[in-house]
Amino acid sequence: MKGRYQHVSEDENYLNSIVNAVEANIRSARILMVEDDMTYRALCERYLAKDPGFTYDIVGISSAAIAMIMCMDQSFDCLIIDYDLPDTTGTELILSLRDAMGDKLPPAVILTAGGGIEAATKAIRANASDFLSKKDVSAESLCRSVCNAVEKGRMKREIQESNEKLNLAYQKLQRNSAEIKNFYHTISHEVKTPLSAIREFLSLMNDEIVGPTTEQQSELLGYSLESCDQIATHFNDLLDLAKTETGKLKLNKAWDSPGRLIMRSTRGVEAAATNKGIKLHSNSVDSQCRIYIDTNRIVQVLSNLLNNAIRHSEPGGMIQVESEITSHDTIDIKVIDFGCGIDSSNHDRIFDRLYQVNPNDDCAIRGGLGLGLSIARDIAHLHDGKIFVESQPGRGSTFTLQLPTGC
Question: In what order do the strands lie in the sheet with 130-133?
Answer without folding.
Answer: 54-61, 27-34, 78-82, 108-112, 130-133
